[in-house]
Amino acid sequence: MENKKIKIEIDGKEIFTEIGKTILQTAKENGIEIPNLCNHPELIPNGACRLCLVEVVGEKRPVASCCYPVYDGMKVYTNTEKLINYRRLTLQLIISDHPLDCMTCEKSGDCLLEKYAYQYGIKKIEYSGEKAERKEKNGFPFIVRDYEKCILCGRCVKVCEEIVGANAIDYKNRGFITEIISGFDEILKDTECLFCGNCIEVCPVGSLREISAEGKGRNWEYEKIKAICPYCGVGCGIVAYVKNNEIVKVKGDEDSPVNKGFLCIKGKFGFEYVKDEERLKKPLIKEDGKFKEVSWEEAIDFVYEKLKYFRDNFGPFSIAGLSSAKCTNEENYIFQKFFRCVLKSNNVDHCARLCHSSTVVGLSQTIGSAAMSNSLDEIENYSDCIIITGTNITETQPVTSYRIRKAKEKGAKIIVIDPREIEISKIADIYLQPRYGTDVIVFNGLAKIIVDEKLYNEEFIKERVENFEEYKKFIEKFDLSLVEKIANVKIEDLRKVAYLYSKSKSSVILWSMGITQHITGTENVFTLSNLALLTGQIGKKGAGLSPLRGQNNVQGACDMGCLPEFYPGYSRVDDKNTIEKFENLWNEKGLPDKIGFTLVEMFENVLKGNIKCLYIMGEMPLISDPDILHIKKALEKIDFLIVQDIFSTEVCEFADVVFPALSSFEKEGTFTNTERRVQKISKCIENNNGKPDWWIINEIAKRFGYNWNYNDVWDILREINKTVEVYKGITPKRVKNGDRIQWPCLSEEDKGTETLHIGKFKRGKGILKIVEYKEPYELPDEDYPFILTTGRILTEYHSRTMTGKVKGIKEITGDEFFVMNCEDAEKLGIKEGDFAEIKSRRGSIKLKAKLSRKIQKGVIFIPFHFYANILTHTELDPYSKIPEFKICSCHICKVPPRQ
Amino acid sequence: MKFKNFSDFKNYCEKLKKEKDERVKIKVCITGCRAAGGLDIYENFKEKIKESKKLKLIPTGCQKFCSGGPVVSVSFDGKSFLYEKVSLKDVESIIKKAEKKEVVEELVIKDEKFLKNQTFKVLKLCGEIDPLDIDEYIKNGGFSSFLKVLNEYTPEKVIEELKKSKLRGRGGAGFPTYLKWEIVKNKQDDEKYLICNGDEGDPGAFMDRTLLEGVPFQVIEGMLIGAYTTGCKKGYFYVRAEYPIAIEHIEKALRICYEYGILGKNILGTDFSFDIELKKGAGAFVCGEETALIASIEGKRGMPRPRPPFPAEKGLFGKPTCINNVETFANIPIIIEERGENFSKIGTEKSGGTKIFSLAGKIKNTGLVEIPLGTPLWKIIYEIGGGVPEGRKIKGVQTGGPSGGCIPVELFNTPVDYETLANLGSIMGSGGMIVIDDKVCIVELARYFLDFVQKESCGKCVPCRIGTKRMLEIIEKITEGKANIEDIEKLEELGNYIKETSLCGLGQTAPNPVLTTIKYFKDEYISHIKEKKCSSGVCVNLIKYYINPEKCTGCTLCAKNCPVNAIEGEKKKPHKINVEKCIKCGICFNICKFGAVEKD
User: B237 φ, ψ to 5°?
Assistant: First the structure.
């Protein structure tokens, strides 16, 4: 996407720029300021405010620099007397229709209109007249919609349309009385509004504001601290506005290459949990079935004694630990180090097992590395064809979906393959809706067309792929008619996908749980990997295999080795070199070399009596793990349970010791986002009740006699620089400096790596895998006639430990629900809002029904936040041990409302 | 589909053209005259004529002479007679006479120069044929241009002809049509769109409406040639919902074209495919602006977008889009038929052909006027329009609707063309022409148009949304006698600023009525401000009613009818108006039988 370089002249100064840019962009890049109110770098220029007018030689009238493209030899004047006069008039007119309450306006100090009025010396209104009557509207529970201050720049409407795609607001009326309304002017909560708050982010004046910050302070009184959103894997940059040790609002960090200032509802408004009254305040020890508050000393001593007891009496593998993808890299690192070094156990795992373990295993086998091949920026700007499969991106990684929208706007073709007609399919060029559990057939079919119609990249295969001949023999025999018979996808449509994917300059495949959470999860990943290897759509900008990660730091927790089969940096535990390497680095003998238990296996082994003691740091398995009742039994049985969390979650009830931890707003460290970008979190407020997770573990290690010399979290990162090769250059100094580096980064001078697999795969050559179709483990039958599938929803996060404490979010989520097809519902006499009991072989739950035509007949969807895992089974993918959350069978019947 | 290949259709056309019908034709306008009862008259004729071997009744589009409506024309032996103000009772006698090839003399229009001084090209078939009879259109040469293009012309050749024709966009901006088509043609894209802009919104303008209602096939033929030339496979008619007859006729005409195989996939067996869909406007004036219109078709709020990129580069759904006005498309078949060179023989050096105007306002003959570009204003107003009724004086003419300006009578020598009108501060626009006489207050006229554009501003850009409002407030002050002389300067300052800085054509032309009237009729503004006088007696706040005691008989009629009891006086003695109480409703003025109530 190299653009032609040209020369233009602005205010007599020669400037080199490129075709495709606007005058305003070029001026800004060259330090020439042109005032503007309606323009936003991420939005399509609107040309509404007319403040950015400039004179171009040869043009009859001044042009709006925000939308006027540069051309070679262009001559521009930005500051003539005429223009200044026009700008004054424009400001005069805007102010004549704007309240003059700047002295009490929340936006004062940060208001663009105020800034320009000052700059252009507007002191009184020359053209006074009637003011348009724009009433304040209801934006409960998060947004103040004070339209009296609205200058109709249109930014909010555009961000809602172009970036978010919600289209919740638009203009009403014409002429002077034009105003912004939602849908049919209902309260915002009753509209399509997703409460991402991006309209507030882009509002240049005080018209849209955060309810949470009303009356809390003036802009210049806030300390503005850059941090990272604690929710999903996107890792959006945020700025916390803090006063008197309170976060009053959160804004998107415009400097972040990840989100460019945009957020979703959770990042924008989901911070209230931090100051919740129910936060854990003191360490707790259970005595006679009741918790008592104890000192840190006492709790730590107690844990030390217990751990020592189990290790010494039942062997190291009688202890297991669940680390957390919510915690920092440093905390995860020390957690696994503690297990391996101190307890000598490899029984360390975390929730990655439940999301992308099949991706990790699958891609490790085929190409050697499982992280996202590409950055989000690349996907927006370089990918010409984007396949989105098994990921409800608008709800699970909303900010990534904004990038997809931008990519589409920039000309990329979007292909969505998903059994559920998810929101993003609205903008798809091709949408395929296969039956549940038929991914292998769909992607084998795609590969078959690619091979049969010679769409594969011969040169790439010759140089970088092995096993082609054998694979070819297999796929040539594949019966393409299965695509229609079993997967219910038209071959013609699949052919279109095959051509688009293989012929585009750069194609990328994005996926998440819809691919991975199957008993064929790893094999599903193999079939995707095959496509990239056949067509050479990997190892170049904008092309690759990009699994979208779930948790804020799930990538980091994996990188840090919180996995039973890997030491930090994906060094296999059963590899002698690994043991030798870490024995040297850690200066410790006898490190465990036997693969530990995976997450689901741990609970199995508790029940079997093999595991006696469990250490859970920041996880809530009673929501997130399959067959919850089964997990509950294990927790009841366990001899000793340590829980470290910020809230007293359900799992704490079973604990023997509970440590109050700190939220990500209260400590320092790093998170690694979905695109391998290591970013610093910040201590925004002081919390003296809890301790950072790393500190707690370090204290216990000290009791065991280990002095690792960690004075602060950065000492741990320094050690990571030494032990994890791809983190080598990501030093505390650079992180603290605000660098957001993508690994691999091999030295302090290395800028990091945006695209993986260029030139060579980690395993050398990529390998094509032969995969045969297998049916899901549990399919509907007479007793349980429906397929149950689970997933996330936009407003909630996983076990709701955090989102559940945000009043506004609860308000928007409403009652716990499930989704079913309208026709099925009619047959069963279930109406929208009725309660139904959903029963599986494992258990049953009662939820409110939501009816939809976007879900296939015979299928119901339950967000897993609502205890869907009471129903799911624990059958695992044999390669990665991931459970099949996406398919089990169930029975539904209408019941009276829950009391 | 009736015709699956080119030659079948061509033969069919040839055969139709040879058919002769010697019957006397009675043509009744059922479109423009409908409001005056044209449809009832047509139905009445239909009932009475039924199957006649001597007469053929034809429902037609507008026969141009609107002030004579309802109009009926009778033609036989190569002659044609236009009847005006026809009523139901005339039907019988028209039929009887027609059967004998005779004329009802007393109904024939009095002022013949209205039609005689025009040059009918685009409107030639309008009012002459049944708008929905495709065979009739074909008989009169319809679709022969399209067939010629499809069979003989390359797209380049069409563009060459257009270039020679000097045809410029009839929507008002006057962009050379060939250039627009060439840009779209040269864009390499699978998807391109062709749009016919039928969102005619200027008050008092009805050229496009007439064409859509009267010769829908001619417009479709122009679009077909456009699609063939530019490589568009999909076209849209965008017609305002306030034109139900136009919508009905276009809908029906499209259906007929599909039946004939002139629209759809592989038209007449060739590899040229073209579909047309009709979209109805929802009543926003700004949707006549092409980028707003495009947004509207996309299902978005009709708001203009900044240009560049121009629609020809990035238009509907982000694809190259050729958007032309109805009248522009209606010109295309004529250019192909006449050849570009011949077409440009009339018109001016820079613009070829004719332009249709809708002549309205304080003038004797109102209706549609088609004249060569470059015709001087006086010719249109006096020779065609017949001037103002007796005893009145012309002040000027407002061209280009609310976006145009008011040209004073002193400048009536001006030849009508894109540039000349622009030089006077007005625009040609789509062709509205409203004649202003001495009973019209110039300030009020400017206020009226400003109020219109202010309300129709899309609300997006600051100068148009707020600027026009502030201008309106100032001009309202003037009409109320509350302004001071500096306010004229303020109007000029704001007006020039809005013209220069607005986003789209609506804003850029919105101040024209005010600026031109200040330029040519400044005295009227000054007398409103300084003397608090409205010489036309229109501005209510500046009028003073008084009773001339010499004329007043004391009949008390005025006092009884005054809604605010502002008139006092004893019976049979002169009355008096209490100025404090008077709300200037004018009831006394209108009701007095002796002309005793006077106003100042």
Answer: -95, 125
Across the interface, of B458, B460, B473, the residue whose CB is closest to A130 is B473
Asked if A76 contacts A10 with a C-beta cutoff of 8 angstroms, the reply is yes
- What pLDDT, on the 0 to 100 scale, is given for residue A1? 45
Task: Tell me what the mean pLDDT of segment B500-523 comes to.
Answer: 95
CA distances to A5, A812, A888 from A798, in Å: 49, 16, 20
Distance between CA atoms of residues B416 and B347, nearest Å: 10
Q: How far apart are CA B329 and CA B335, in angstroms?
A: 10
Sequence-ordered list of residues with C-beta below 8 angstroms from that of B318, at least 6 positions apart, any chain: none
Checking ipTM against 0.95, whether it exceeds it is no
**Best to test chain B binding among A50, A83, A169 (most B CBs inside 10 Å):** A50
The mean pLDDT value of chain B amounts to 93
Query: Between residues 149 and 168 of chain A, which touch chain B (CB distance below 8 Å)?
Result: 151-152, 154
β-strand partners of A859: A787
| β-bridge pairing A169-172 and A179-182 | antiparallel
Instruction: Strands of A48-119 (E only): list them.
Output: 53-56, 63-64, 75-77
pLDDT in tens, B590-600: 999 999 998 87
Across the interface, of A86, A130, A151, the residue whose CB is closest to B501 is A86
Residue A816 near chain B (CB below 8 Å): no
A741-742/A223-228 β-pairing: unpaired
Determine the residue type at B367: G
**Contacting residues for A725 by C-beta, under 8 A, at least 6 apart:** A569, A744, A746
* Type of residue numbered B72: V
pLDDT of res. A585: 94
Residue for token pair 């600023």: B497
Q: Which residues lie below 8 Å from residue A234, measured CB to CB, with a gap of 6+?
A: A258, A259, A376, A397, A398, A399, A400, A673, A674
Three-class SS state of A46: coil
Q: Given an 8 Å threshold on Cβ–Cβ distance, is A175 in contact with B490?
A: no
Could you tell me if B594 and B551 are in contact, meaning their C-beta atoms sit under 8 angstroms apart? yes
**Neighbour-count burial for B90-111, b at 16+ CB within 10 Å, e otherwise:** bbeebbebbeeeebbeebebeb
Tens of pLDDT, residue by residue over B193-247, are: 999 999 998 888 899 999 999 999 999 999 999 999 999 999 999 999 999 999 9
Residues of chain A with pLDDT under 70: 1-3, 898-899
CB-nearest partner of B460 from A69, A129, A154: A154
Cβ(B197)–Cβ(B189) below 8 Å: no
The two three-digit tokens of residue A757, written as one number: 């697999």
What percent of chain B clears pLDDT 90, i.e. is strictly above it?
Answer: 84
Amino acid B319: pLDDT = 95
Q: Where are the alpha helices (DSSP H) in B129-215?
A: 134-139, 144-152, 155-165, 177-186, 207-214
Q: Between A89, A154, A174, which is nearest B284 by CB?
A: A174
* CA–CA dist A753, A756 (Å, integer): 7
Which of B307, B456, B461 best tests the A interface by mutation, with the highest count of A CBs <10 A?
A: B461
In eight-state DSSP terms, residue B330 is H
Q: Which two tokens stand for residue B419?
A: 């540039």
A151 neighbourhood in chain B, CB within 8 Å: 462
Residue of A147, A176, A410 for testing the chain B interface, max B β-carbons within 10 Å = A176
